[in-house]
Amino acid sequence: MRLALLGCGTVGSEVVRLLHEQAADLAARIGAPLEIAGIAVRRLGRDRGDLPVDPALFTTDALGLVKRDDVDVVIEVVGGIEPARSWLVEALRAGKSVVTANKALLAEDGAALHDAAADGGGDLYYEASVAGAIPLLRPLRESLHGDRINRVTGIVNGTTNFILSAMDATGAGFAEALEEATELGYAEADPTADVEGFDAAAKAAILASLAFHTRVGAADVHREGITEVTAADVASAKAMGCTIKLLCIAARGADAAGRETVSVRVHPAMIPLSHPLASVGDAFNAVFVEAEAAGPLMFYGRGAGGAPTASAVLGDVVAVSRNRLAGVRSASESAYADLAVRPMGEALTRYHISLDVADRPGVLEAVAGVFARHDVSIATVRQGPAGGGAAGRGDDADLVIVTHVAPDAALAATVGELRGLDIVRSVASVLRVEGGL
């Protein structure tokens, strides 16, 4: 089986190394040896250390490599939308099989890749696009096809999980925890894609598409990052027996007419320490799947890094190579359900709201009235001196309210009205609460 490798950075280099080190085992598993036909890179002549590969295999002509007749499988680990989309569509329409780790492309325009695969008759595998080495997508698209999945909740970004875990462990603020993550190599020089939730949103779209047999794109995912999470939020979560995680949540539901829908969202949320995801620390990933027959399933492991991601890539290479030798292809995209994506305002969730209010009679009644007007039920209320008793706050008080489940639009409208009350000095923080607290 002849392979074209697009990209030879952190992941691509590990793919080459594993192909070399495990050549005999891979050949035995597939029934034929794997050979690298070429490696497309941006620049020739770059020092690649002791990478076990013939320098003559490197080229800057990725499209030319993809079009070669002697290429059976195209592996793409470059990332981004273009020119990766053009390369992969060309490969798939020509009947070649494709293995990609490109979560951004799959979330932005996975439909184009699936359609091209259907036209050409090749396989499209992308296990490495979500949660690194964790075997997750294959179980969703194959093992659980006989079941009905109702909800997928996950921690799918290692950088943000490291930051929030550090804030929880040390009491540090976001900026300090981000600085530590950068120093340790968990955060990029520009961490925007991670801390603003773009990376997790792309993965959420892929998970929802597979779980609910519906095409879900990045634009369908409600996205919020962790930059507004404060040390005070983390302390408040601890006081409630919770921790804060950046969650991707994809769930079945129904609209006002009773038609089945899905909601897909990414945002920070408090979860109780009893929840399986609460103990997932450092830069690890974990995904919690709730299925009707199988019940709750947990997938956990390293969600990023060169070697873990390369492991997932090679698992896909073995699968598509076996298919090509047998003259078959895997099941095509399953999007038969074609469910509507519910807007965030209709998603059911709970809020944890911290208010700085005037400390005088009637305040609690006025605040409760706002919740009642928006048909939001209050679960718990905690009131105390401003700043936990700190001096210099005059006649202010802290009021912490946790709601029952309600539509997000009603909860957001409640917070909006609270901001306009004279008795509310400020809305100190608003966090969603998930996980059955």
Automatic annotation (TrEMBL):
Cofactor(s) listed: a metal cation
Listed A to Z, the keywords are: Amino-acid biosynthesis, Methionine biosynthesis, NADP, Oxidoreductase, Sodium, Threonine biosynthesis
Question: Which reaction(s) are listed as its catalytic activity?
Answer: L-homoserine + NAD(+) = L-aspartate 4-semialdehyde + NADH + H(+); L-homoserine + NADP(+) = L-aspartate 4-semialdehyde + NADPH + H(+)
Task: Give residue ranges for domain ACT.
Answer: 352-432
Q: Which Gene3D superfamilies match?
A: 3.30.70.260, Dihydrodipicolinate Reductase, domain 2, NAD(P)-binding Rossmann-like Domain
Q: What is its EC number?
A: 1.1.1.3
Entries under Pfam families matching the protein: ACT, Homoserine_dh, NAD_binding_3
Top-rank taxon of the source lineage equals: Bacteria
Q: Which PANTHER family match?
A: HOMOSERINE DEHYDROGENASE
Q: Which NCBIfam families match?
A: PRK06349.1 (NF004976)
Q: What is this protein called?
A: Homoserine dehydrogenase
